[in-house]
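Team,

Forwarding the record for the chain on the shared tracking sheet. I've put the sequence and predicted structure together so nobody has to dig through attachments.
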Amino acid sequence: MPSANHWQVQGPRPRPAMVLGKRARKDRVPVTAKLIRKSALRQVFQSLEGVVYGPDGAPLGDAAVRLPGVNRSTQTSRYGEFKFEAVPVIAVKQLLVEAQGRQMVIDLSSLSASWPLAIHFQLEE
């Protein structure tokens, strides 16, 4: 086999005829994911329900209940009950109750009460 000096004198440099390659493999440490115990949708959406009572303490039927933040409305049953399914928690700040030509606004952002709501609708001025 000729030396490297021989090839430098002759002109062309020697080139490898074959390249051997080996893939480098690194074992990764397995990552374990935490289990989610609460649904993320429950924190974003929740149902809103309650009962509307009249001034005498009896349930107030056929009252209009509105959520202006999400443009939804419903009527109370003859037992004064209402329910909204899957309401976005962030968008709901007020609840409007309309009955017998009167309107009552309830600020839901300041309430810390549990559901269902008990709304006592006052008709007196």
